[in-house]
Each structure stands twice: as structure tokens, then as C-alpha cells.
Amino acid sequence: MKTQYEAVIGLEVHAQLGTRTKIFSRAAVTFDEPANSVVNEVCAGYPGSLPVLQRDAVTLALRAGVALGCNIRRKSQFARKNYFYPDLPKGYQISQFDAPLCEGGELVFEVAGETKRCGITRIHMEEDTGQSSHASDAPFSLIDLNRAGTGLIEIVSEPELRTAEEASAYFKELRAILVAIGINDGVLANGSMRCDANVSVRPVGREAFGTKVEVKNLNSFKFLREAIGFEIERQIAEIEAGGTIYQETRLWDDAKKQTIMMRRKEGSADYRYFPEPDLPHLVVSEAWLAEVAATLPELPSQTRARLQEVCGLSAYDAGVLVATDGFAAFFDGVAALGTAPKAVTNWLSGSILAAINARALSYRGGIGFVTAAGHRILPAAIAELQKLVEDNTISSTASRTVFEKMLTTDAAPAAIVESEGLRQVSDTGAIDGIIDEVLAANPSEVERYRAGQVQLFGFLVGLAMKASKGKGDPKLVNARLRAKLDGGA
Amino acid sequence: MAEQTLFEVAEAVRSGLRTAESVVGEALARMEVTASFGAFVHVDRERALADARAVDARVAAGELLPLAGVPVAVKDNLCTEGLETSCASKMLGGFIATYEATAVSRLRAAGAVVIGKTNMDEFAMGSSGETSVFGRALNPWDTERVPGGSSSGSAVAVSSRAVLASLGSDTGGSIRQPASFCGVVGFKPTYGRISRRGLVAFASSLDQIGPFTTDVADAALLFSVMAGQDGGDMTTSDAPVPTVDELLQAPAPLRVGVPKEYLAEGLDPEVRGRLDAALDALKAEGAEIVEVSLPHSKYAVATYYILASAEASSNLARFDGVRYGHRDTNATSLIDTYRRTRTFGFGAEVRRRIMLGTFVLSAGYYDAYYQRAQKVRSVFVREFEAAFRQCDVLLTPTAPTAAFKFGEHGDDPLTMYLADIYTIPANLAGLPAMSVPAGLTAGGLPVGVQVLAAPFAEKTLFGAALAIERRLGKMAAPPAASGEKS
Questions:
Q1: Which residues lie closer than 8 Å to A422 by C-beta, 6 or more apart?
Q2: Does some domain include residue B294?
Q3: Per residue in B336-372, pLDDT tens?
Q4: Is residue A440 exposed (0-12), middle (13-18) or buried (19+ Cβ within 10 Å)?
Q5: Phi and psi at residue B302, in whole multiples of 5°?
Q6: Which string of b and e fits A111-140 if b means at least 16 CB within 10 Å?
Q7: Fewer beta carbons under 10 A from the terminal one: N or C of chain A?
Q8: Does B283 reside within a domain?
């Protein structure tokens, strides 16, 4: 009988802390600045410089710990992780080792409608490194220390994930939590959140873990899913062929759709960790922790539950709103102005999502939705637009035209309706005139309708709407057309 | 000027009797006369004179500066803006810091003028000054003898009276031992009293900046200016800093402890004699002498060399040839750049300690060495706590001998390491400790005694040091320095 295998997966997620300054100095955290321009003596590891832990960074790390249900260590300690690399200016990274800030949490997520849980081993704080770039033809590498010293948390899961889909769902939910609690922008592409996966396989029923392989820098959900899926298949095939799995670090090659070996570990690397003598113990007071807990924003799972229970959304709609950056808050903003929940979700999953996909609109954390032209689209504008539909000022077709216009101008919806002449025609006389013209121009269709081909009604409505240039009130057009056809006038 | 105090120099400048410029000019001239002692390694005369004129302008504007116009020499491992900071190493040759050490900034804010950087053992690793890339500094009392180390130049600068005040750093005795050898006062405050920001780290949990002066009161003045919490160093304490007046009015201690283990083997009879003289002085001031025990003292040197080297191996990792300082340009790869830069940029003693430190932190050895040494360190802390329940201060020799001759410890680093046997415990336990001159040997070499107090009990410590100085007299300048006086 063929051996059945199961995979054992654990994820290590690094998330930058969205503080204004670096974790151990007041150097600014910015993106896209010229290389080495936001660097002071601490981030550059100059002789005599000392780390000064910034309180904001700890507060954000505590938020993550509380959100993930961890035990918060009241007295944690920083440690030095020693290794040489040009983008590590001090020759050591200040991290936490045997006394991390948070331990023993849990993440609950859904895979294909099923609720799963995965333990969180620990969350520790550390500083980011600089960045190296290696041009293949140059006899040197370039170092940019702008990123060096940016605060990070590393969230280490228990090896409790079993499939690539579970790993992906775990990472997605974790990302949603970190974005919701305001500690990270959730942008995977720029490295503000990074994921490494430890993957091993074992025959089903065996307790002992197989040899694990670390797959590094999985910077999109797609890569994560594909890389883990590939790695599981590769390891099973290797074992089936009588081969050996080596403890090694691999990278995802997206062009070849396979993981490739980066380095093989001869034992574990010796980082010579020891307590950081330049920093006293990090003491978290009860008051500090209580303040973090009291000001913790709503978590994605809580938002989903509220959207279903209080706003009456379907589980699917609630899931989509929470999974898309800015949608849940925007929903709340529009709904608070009296717009029906279903109408708001229709806007979000319809025109707004389409605009985002077409890059005409983007979400900027802390600011909201901003058009390519730089105007904000506020919840109030959507509420106003929907109200114009509901009081029959415009048709829902016209409302989508108004929205398109809002993407390129910053005029209010009502102003656009007027300037574009989109106001709905609800005058019976005018509608009757249009219908009469349509019926007169299509005598054979009228004849066939009356002879029993009732499906032609829709065709005639379409012609009437078109003749009204889309402005005819559809309900009125329907009613008047039916009256004229069926009434024999 | 040589026999003046800092109080008198500053008062003369404050009162308009003298200008800071003339005081600094005179110090620069003294520096020239005493140049053969090799105390200074980086000097910028024009800058020092310009800084002095700036002080004169502040005095004229009515600022009351406690150190108005006082010339200060600064150890070459303290960052000074615009003046090279090389740690007496090829590795940092030509390095100019982008910011200034907090201790130096506080001296400047109080009106002091930095007149130069002083010689030292490379990266503060040594007890004789002999590991400096600039060559050795000489003991002004006997130029065939070492000035002690690692703050060799700072001790020599004050001993030779080029200046009346200098800064050193003390990781295992690097202020107190050269102070003893050169006949000056050398003070290492409680760990956490003076910001280490801008001090090129040797062993972060042990390093502390402190002053060299010709008398105890001047040390109190410099200490009160430099001490106090600093937002740039999280290991500084928020404990209130005693004022100069509080320090100078401190009474002689009632109970003086002498650790019996310190008087056992290897103590030179001449040194023992000066210790007894200091004890008699304290008795004469009304103190009771009590015997105390620090049973684990014999493990201090071993503990220190594990912990200090471990921290040093990490602290000195940043000298990799990538961003600043020396880079070996004959290298052919990244690894080769590291290897060659660090092999040829560091001297033998520094390399030895980096390798030792790397070893004791390595997987498989960490528990046996680093971890165990940390445990022993906490034993020292408890033993001192117990001792200070029996007495107010401890009195010990500063060093086992008076200044030894160049090359005397030859190629055996271990015998050299024993030169710090009495000074290391204060660093391990974070205590304040001062070497106070206690007279000369029959051969005319100065000998210091060490006063230790409980953490943050600097007031008590100064009470004892002042009492010793009162009875034994302030140590005169060495004959060579006086002879060279123009």
C-alpha cells in the first residue's frame, strides 16, 4: 500500500512596525528616500553610538501580542544576534532571544469554510537590517542603510499548519489583523511584511517531524501557496525515491515555479546570542498593558461577526469587506449615514473594487481611498450618490456614470448629475411621447408581442430607455409601455 | 598654574583675572614642554584656542561656568566633534566622529576646553599603555616605567601637569591603575552615573567614564558636571547627583572595611606600607577599621576576562572595513575584506580578546563560560552588599605593585592581567571606586590606594578620599614635570 504523507508547516512572519522613528533612535522611517539619507550614528553603527528603545515601537508590538492572545512578558530582554554582513552595520542585530515580549498566542482562521486554529509560539522585537544590492557586472555591492534600525516584530507560529492553503489563509488573516490594529501597512511587495516557511513532511500517523526546509522571502500569498505546495511534493518525491531531505534554506523561483537551494545548514548557525548590555530589561507595566488592551481596534474576526450579526451581511460579503484594505471602515462610514448595508456592499464590490483593480483608485492607510488624480473618495460621497438613486433623481445606471466622473474630478455627486445632465426623466407625458415614437417605429415587434411573443417586452423597454438616453425612470417606462401594449392603445 | 586647582582656574577666568584663551595657551605650551612623555596623540591648537575664545565670550556675556576656561585632555576613545577619535588603533586611523560624547559635551557646556586626545592601550585593552599604535606613553616619575593603562595618556597628561584634568574610561581599572602609577587621583563612578554615549565601547556592562585630577576636590567638580541621567544612554541612572558642595563636605567614614583576601599573596610590601598609612590616616580621622571578607575575589580576573572579552568580541564586530576607518584594499572578496581588515587593522592584544570572547559565546561553550561568569558576577554583587552592611567604605590597594618597567610582563598576557586584580571587582559589581595617592615607595614611585563604596554612595566615597588626602597631603608633581616647567 502506498504511504500517505502529511506536511508540517510553520511560518515566521516579519512585520515592520509602523512607527515614525526607528526602533532604537529617532531617525525617521521613510520610504523612497535617496540611499543612506535617513541614517544617524545609531543606525549606521558608528563607534560609541548607543541604542535608545523608542516607546512607540513597544506599544505597537504589545498591540500585536494582545491581538493574538499572547502572554505578555512583564520583563523581557533584548539580545545580540552576532553575524557579519555588510548591511548589518554593528556586526550584530539587536533582537530578543530567550526572553521575548510575547509568547503562547493563537490565530483562528478559515479555510474553505472550515475554522482552523494555529498556535503562536512567540512574538519578539528586533531591528531591521539595511539593504544590499549586487550588480552582476560590478566588483562591489551597494549598501543602503535607510532601512537599518526600522522596528520589526517576528511572529513565529507553531508547526501546526498542514497544507499550503492553510498556510496561506493563516498569513492572510495575520496580515489582516496587523493592518486592522494599525501596526503595518500590509504591503507585501515592498517588504514591510515578509514571510519564511518551515516545511517538512512525514508519513501520516507518525509523531516525529521530518527534516525541515526553510523557504525564505515568500512575499506574496500566491508565492507562499505555490512554494509550499511545490516543496511538499518535492520532499515526498525525494523520500519515495529513497533520497534524503537535508536541512537547508531554499528560495522560490517564480519563473521556474520551483524552490531552489540557497544554502545547506551544517548544524545550526552560531549567532552567539547574549543579553544586550546597552539596554536595560524592557519592563511593561500593568497600566501600559491595560491601555494597549483598552485602545485595541476591532479585530477582523470581530468585524466579520458584527457585519453579519448587526448589519445583516452574508458571511461572504462580510469576508470580502474584511479581506480588502479599507473596505470595512468605509462600509461603516457609509452605513453610518443611513445607507442600506446591501447598497454599500454593492458599491464596494462593484464600482469601487473595479476602480481599484483599474488603478483609478487606491487605498492609503490612514487617509482612505484616493483617486489617481489625488482626490479622496469619502464615505459621505457614496452615501449621497446612493441617496440620488433612492429618491429617483438618477437611475442606477446613471449613478455608475457619476461614480466614474468622481474618479477624475472632485465635484460632488449632485453637481456631476447636473453638469452631465443625468437627472432621471420621471414625467409621464415625456415618457409616453418616447414610447409612442418607439412603438410607431417598430410595428412588426408590437404585432408579434400582441400575438403572444411576450419576451419582446424587454426588447421594447431597451429601445425606450435608449431613446431616453438612459435617463428615463425604468419603472415608469416599464409601467407605461405595459399599459400601452396591453391596453391596446 | 601647575599647583592650582580647577576651582581656582575657573574662578580666575570667571572673575576676568585671566582669559580662557591665555589659560588654554599656557596648557598648549605645557603640552609642548612635556611632549616627550607621549601623553597626547591628536591635538588641534587652533581649534582649542578658538573654543577658548568662545568661552571668553560666554563669560563676558555673564554665564557662570563652573569649568570656565579649564583645559581638559580626553582619552582617544571618547568621540569629539572635529577632532580625530582613533582609539589608538590602526583600525580607526583618521576617524572623525559625527557627534560628541555626552560626557565631553557636558564639560564643554560647563566652560571646559578640549585641548587634545590622549594616548591609550588600543581600544582600551591593556594595563600598561604598550598596545597603542602610537607607541608608548612614559611614566613622568620614571620614564623607564609604564604609566599604567589603558588610560595611559590621560594619567600622564595630569601627572606631568600639561593639564589639571583629563577624562579616561575604566572597564577593569583603566583609570585607577594608571592614576596609582602616575601619582594622581583617578575616579570611576558608579556604573550608570555618567553617560557612555560617545564612548567607543569595549565592554558595555563594565565601561564607565571618569576623571583624572591632581586632587580629590577637582575630581568631585568634574564628576558633578558629567554625572546624571542621559536620554542617549538607557543604562544611565536617574538617581540624584550630589552637588560639589555635598561631596566636599562629606564627613570621614565611621567604619572602613579591609577585605582580608586582598592582603594575602602577591602584595608588594611597599604597597602594603602605603595602604597602612592610608588606614592610619582614616583612623586618625576617627574611623574604625573592620576586617571584611570577599571570599570569591580570586575569581574576579577570570570572570572579568570572560565577560569583558565576550562583550568586546561583539562591540568590535562593527570594525569591518565597510563604513569607516581602516579597510584592507588588497582583499579579493567580502570574506577576505573582513579577514584582512581585521587581521591587520587590530593589534595582537585586541585580536586575542576578540577570539577569546567569540569562543566563550560559542554554542557549546556559552553555558560553561559566559553563563557561569554571569552567575559569579552576581555573587560578587551580593558579597559587596554584605561587606557594605559591615562598613561604609572599603580600602584596598589600587594595584599590586607600583609602576613596573616596560616589557616587564613580556609575552605573558596573564601576568599583565593580574595588574588589575584589585580594580576589576568594582567594575563587575558596578561600584564607585577611586585611586587616591598615598605617598611614594622608597624608590620614589607613587602608590595609590583604592576607596570603594556602595553603588551611588559617591558622597561616602569622597568623605573617605578627602580624609586620606587631608592626612597624607596632596601628591606633588613628579620631579621631571617640575624640572621641565619653564
A1: A394, A398, A401, A402, A416, A471
A2: no
A3: 999 999 999 999 999 999 999 999 999 999 999 999 9
A4: exposed
A5: -65, -45
A6: beeeebebbbbbbbbbbbbbeeeeeeeeee
A7: N
A8: no
Chain A residues whose CB is inside 8 A of the B235 CB are: 277-280
* pLDDT one-digit tens code per residue, B415-461: 778 889 999 999 999 999 999 999 999 999 999 999 999 999 999 99
Tell me how far apart the alpha carbons of residues A87 and B182 are, in angstroms, rounded to a whole number.
Answer: 44
Q: By C-alpha distance, which of A165, A161, A86 is closest to A129?
A: A86
Cβ-based neighbour number of residue A489 at 10 Å = 10
| Distance in angstroms (rounded) separating the CA atoms of residues B201 and A347 | 60
Q: Output helix, strand, coil percentages for chain B, rounded to the nearest 5.
A: 45, 15, 40
Which of B87, B98, B205 lies closest to A46 in CB terms? B98
Confirm if B13 and B6 have CB atoms less than 8 A apart: no
**Strand, coil or helix: what is A260?**
strand
Looking up cell 543606525 gives A43
The amino acid present at B52, given as its one-letter code, is A
- Cβ contact, residue pair B366, A274, below 8 Å: yes
Residue B429 sits at the chain A interface (C-beta within 8 Å): no
Q: Which residues of B are catalytic?
A: 75, 150, 174
Q: Which band of pLDDT confidence, cut at 50, 70 and 90, is reported for residue A366?
A: confident
Q: Does the residue B174 lie in any domain?
A: yes
Q: How far apart are CA A3 and CA A485, in angstroms?
A: 72
The DSSP H or E segment spanning A134 is: strand A131-134
Residues in chain B: 486
**Distance (Å) from the C-alpha of residue B184 to the closest C-alpha of chain A?**
27
What range does the domain containing B126 cover? 6-260+390-483
Q: Facing residues of A141 across strands? A: A134
Q: At what angle do helices A443-450 and A474-486 cross, to 10 degrees?
A: 70
Pairing of strands A274-275, A79-82: antiparallel
Predicted local confidence at residue B480, as pLDDT: 86
Residues B243, A61: contact at Cβ < 8 Å?
no
Q: How far is CA A151 from its chain centroid?
A: 20
CATH at B14 = 3.90.1300.10
Bridge-partner residues for A14, per DSSP?
Answer: A154, A194
Number of domains in chain B: 1
Q: Is A282 left (phi over 0), alpha (psi -120 to 50) or beta?
A: beta
B311 interaction partners in chain A (CB closer than 8 Å): 274, 277
pLDDT digits (tens, 9 = 90+) for B83-101: 999 999 999 999 999 999 9
**Residues in chain B closer than 8 A to A91 (CB atoms):** 314, 316-318, 320
**Per-residue pLDDT at B485:** 42
Report which DSSP code applies to A133. Answer: E
Show the domains of chain A with their CATH numbers: 5-286 (no CATH), 298-419 (no CATH), 428-486 (1.10.10.410)
Is B350 a domain residue? no
Residues near A338 by beta carbon (within 8 Å), at least 6 away in sequence? A383
Encode A229-253: b = buried (16+ Cβ within 10 Å), e = exposed. bbbbebbbeebeeeeebeebbbbbe
CA distance B12 to B6: 10
Cβ pair B474, B21 in contact under 8 A: no
Q: How far apart are CA A13 and CA B472, in angstroms?
A: 66
A41 contacts on B by Cβ (under 8 Å):
97-99
- Say yes or no: B332 contacts chain A, CB-CB below 8 A: no
Which residue of chain A is at minimal alpha-carbon distance from B205?
A277
pLDDT digits (tens, 9 = 90+) for A52-97: 999 999 999 999 999 999 999 999 999 999 999 999 999 999 999 9
User: For B314, which of A52, A80, A86 is closest by C-beta distance?
Assistant: A80
B306 touching A, CB under 8 A? no
